[in-house]
From TrEMBL:
Keywords carried by this UniProt record: RNA-binding, tRNA-binding
A Pfam family: tRNA_bind
GO molecular function, one term: tRNA binding
UniProt cross-references to CDD domains, sorted A to Z: tRNA_bind_CsaA
This protein's name: Export-related chaperone CsaA
Amino acid sequence: MGRDDLSETTAERFFEVEMRVGRVVTAEPLAKAKTPAYRLRIDFGEHGLRHSSAQITDLYAPDELVGRLVVAVTNLPPRRIAGFVSEVLVLGVPDEQGRVTLLEPERDVPVGGRVH
């Protein structure tokens, strides 16, 4: 991918996106999802508990997710997915097979911390 393939944004617009670190409290299959997904409950410290739907079933079992730090976009409007309201977007990167690997801090950091 060359530089011409990327659309540009401004620093101001980028910083409008609020990304925070949270700790997964619960993870369970989202039964009604068309594509296999988990219902995650994530603790963002003083920013509260939030829910997310995450299509990460290929690489993670629910018990591997509980206690894990994740990075999520926290200022998107809620979205109804398979009868479930997802309040944050957990971030990850797909590998060559399309399996999503979660973005996570390298070290233990406070939950609710803003990503810069």
